[in-house]
Amino acid sequence: MSEVTRRKLLTVGAAGAGVAMLPAGWTAVARAKSAAPPQVLAANDLALWYDEPAGTDWLRALPIGNGRLGAMVFGNVDAERLQLNEDTVWAGGPYDSANPRGAASLAEIRRLVFADQWGQAQTLVDQAMLGRPAGQLAYQPVGNLRLGFTSGTVSQYNRTLDLTTATVSVTYVLNGVRYQREVFASAPDQVIVIRLTADRANSITFRATFDSPQRTTVSSPDATTIAIDGISGNMEGINGSVRFLALANATASGGTVSSSGGTLRVSGATGVTLLVSIGSSYVDHRTVNGDYQGIARTRLDAARNVSIDQLRSRHLADYRSLFDRVTINLGRTSAADQPTDVRIAQHAGVNDPQFSALLFQFGRYLLISSSRPGTQPANLQGIWNDQMAPPWDSKYTINANLPMNYWPADTTNLAECLLPVFDMVRELAVTGARTAQVQYGAGGWVAHHNTDGWRGSSVVDGALWGMWQTGGAWLATLIWEHYLFTGDGEFLRSNYPAMKGAAQFFLDTLVTHPTLGYLVTNPSNSPELPHHANVSVCAGPTMDNQILRDLFEGCARASEVLGVDTTFRIQVRSAKDRLPPMRVGSRGNVQEWLADWVETEQYHRHISHLYGLHPSNQITRRGTPQLYEAARRTLELRGDDGTGWSLAWKINYWARMEEGARAHKLIRDLVRTDRLAPNMFDLHPPFQIDGNFGATSGIAEMLLQSHDGELHLLPALPTAWPTGQMSGLRGRGGYTVSIAWTSGQADEFLIRADRDGTVKLRARLFTGGFTVADVTDGSTPTTTQPESDAVQLGVRADHSYRLARPAVQPSPTLSPTASTSPGTPTSSATSSPAPSSARAVYAVTNSWPGGFQGEVTITAGSSPIRSWNVSWAFRDGQVVSQVWSGSYTQSGADVTVINSAYNGALPAGGSTTFGFIASASAVNDPPTNITCTAT
Ligand code: FUC
Fold it and tell me: Ligand 1 centroid vs 13 CA: distance in angstroms?
């Protein structure tokens, strides 16, 4: 493939709103025939729907996904297209980009920065610190499945993505026959399912073919299946190495199916089930020789044995167990009767509160569909990308975008969707340790402003953007943050080493500022913003200091919880105390750099130094009133405009400012045709999914906040949502919260606690009379009122507490939803020495309600082994649902995992690890009888 236009895009993006790429803003007008079909309204309005097909416009097609497999469904009557993705198809292959010139140049770079010679420093960074290659690699598509039907005059066309069922439906009438297509991506069965039906027998006839922009071959492996076998693209001088195989199989009732030469033909059928299965050879960031054909074939064969009804019901049970945890109702007007594209185009001039609810739930839908335990994290486009050279390579940009993708995960009760990030962090701790050593001569690990499927960790793209040290640090803070929501000690124990390694890097590399005496990063930047013409490189930017305060304090508190590392704890706390404090600048703003410089672009999209306001809690209304006012001034100076993700971050900022009207204004700014595509994908522009996730997070922050040691209920309710209900949002400390309000005033709160403890609640409700009850046992808990609008009460695990205005009847819509606290944590088990003396160690790395993720590491003894298998018996009814890097069988309690070709042979002392996902009920004890047999 041709070299990617990454730098061109980067330059355009860096210039601000991406003028060269800005589409004129698409248009849609209300059409006379556009009345919401009854089945959509019945689905509680939680659907995107259209009265026209997507045609050739990718931004009108509708996304489905199961975390790993993704498709954009176009819904065209005669030429249906499913644009397919698999989340590990990355250009190139494993690489090491550490620049060996780095460490030796560091002293001079630092000297130049401290001497205010930023231009020279930046040039030297470009020469000595930039990775080799100096860019990272792109996430790429698998290809397309196209279905060709005969055309004719169509009526009653409708196309819907129902967020309550994660299903795209297309229905129309052609030649007097009503046709229906139903498309979903099943996580339990790991296939994409396309079900075609018609209300007249024998009327479904079509041809199906695969094509792709990748290097591929198509074939017909059997009489009912077509295949496309390919390899990812070359890039940055690195050969494409991810092999993939997509299979599509048809089963028909009442007609015939045949396949030859890569074309599948279905003729005269009454009902057809098409299954799409995709396997990839990507095992992890270091290994690309997985059995991709075996994976594709095994998944397809298994799904072929499952009836369509069962495929559908398993998909629904799985999806709903996540999606249904949160409900939201912000009110409804007749604006919601229009097709989705018309609603977006008209949004500025109408009152459409239901659209905010739809936008909120669409973000949750996208997260469930693009990030599941064991998959890759959601990248800049989630998992949906049709281009070989997508904008910014569709990578993971850490200085805003990747963290933003995950802001709604814990708060909107999707804790397990966050787990892929921690897998990534553990891998970055490996690649980033090499970068730390080679480029800084330091211990621990570092990642800069971007990473990719190969976990690139060096400085990339150019010093102005890439010379930012705290990407890995920010990601590592998410470990402690996630623990605050779940209280999952086992999770903390297995991820603590990555936090510690991130902090160790800074203990080794922070330098004392020659005049101010603080410990500072040098060189670094305040993301992507020059402080003087064309230079961003500096020492100790405010955002770095804020991130490091969170990282150091998170490490210290984690070490207390785990009872480890007393000396390290003292080290990080004393380093934290020597970081530069935040300051108020001459304009009344929060100072972005150590010096009171004025930014070179007043309306720049990044407002990085307000990281302390959101997502962090270092700037709060009640804790730091001066900085809080300076944050407000900063937001006013920078203005409301920005790229999609920048607007989304501002919704969160204004929610934390407790200004509902302003936060709501930012939502309206986002729901415009230049910031939201017809399919509701957020536009930077171009499409970037962070704005969707950031908007969902922002709406959650308007209704519930928990960052300041209390649950703040309705902190930023706008007058545009006078009456509503929400149930199931989560607060730090392990609380599940539901709220009902009318005329802008809270009626009742329902709080369910995961654990025993004391909770502080803040709400305007408490300034008047209110009632309190433990609705689980009917008792009346004692409360204290430390402030006029705050109440404190003791809570017990799994009890729900109702606080309400007197005489308000309990709302039937507020059910105490399930908490996401994990089951009983597990420890690890080790196999008894096997004859070959290879051994296996079993460990749980993550858990969530009803399931967990584990790893087994096999280590060869004093002689090499050719192959191995590992067996154990589960003690509590756990069932394995997925194993990566190996094939498995489970019969009752007995599980056996057999090496696959790529990791069977190990040298003496060598080891390999496979991961798995399993379901677990309340108890999840580790197996005691794990055995490893090697030959
Ligand atoms: C950062 C941002 C850009 C864009 C890119 C993917 O570089 O500054 O606006 O979102 O990431």
Answer: 6
Peptide bond into 615 cis (omega under 30): yes
Length of the chain: 935
Atom of ligand 1 at shortest range from CA of 646: 9
User: By three-state DSSP, how is residue 933 classified?
Assistant: strand
Query: How many A from CA of 380 to the centre of ligand 1?
Result: 9
3-state secondary structure of 708: coil
Helix-strand-coil split of the chain, %, nearest 5: 30, 30, 40
Average pLDDT over all residues of the chain: 92
Q: Of all atoms in ligand 1, which is nearest to the CA of residue 465? A: 7
Q: Tell me the whole-structure pTM to 2 decimals.
A: 0.88
pLDDT tens digits, one per residue of 619-634 = 999 999 999 999 999 9
Q: CA nearest 676: which of 26, 12, 164?
A: 26
Rounded Cα–Cα distance for residues 849 and 525 (Å): 40
Per-residue pLDDT, 33 = 54
Burial (Cβ within 10 Å: 0-12, 13-18, ≥19) of residue 295: buried
Q: Check: CB of residue 472 under 8 Å from CB of residue 445.
A: yes
Q: How many CB atoms lie within 10 A of CB 626?
A: 13
Give the span between the Cα atoms of 171 and 156, in whole angstroms: 8
Tokens matching residue 418 = 């966050």
Burial class (CB in 10 A: 0-12, 13-18, 19+), 609: buried
Residue with tokens 């739809």: 358
Residue 6 has pLDDT above 70, yes or no: no
Alpha helical stretches, state H, 353-446: 353-370, 401-411, 419-440
- Gap between the Cα atoms of 831 and 230, Å rounded: 39
Coil/strand/helix, residue 405: helix
Residue 432's φ and ψ, nearest 5 degrees, are -75, -20
- Calpha distance 55→18 (Å, rounded): 26
Residue 467 CA to ligand 1 centre (angstroms): 14
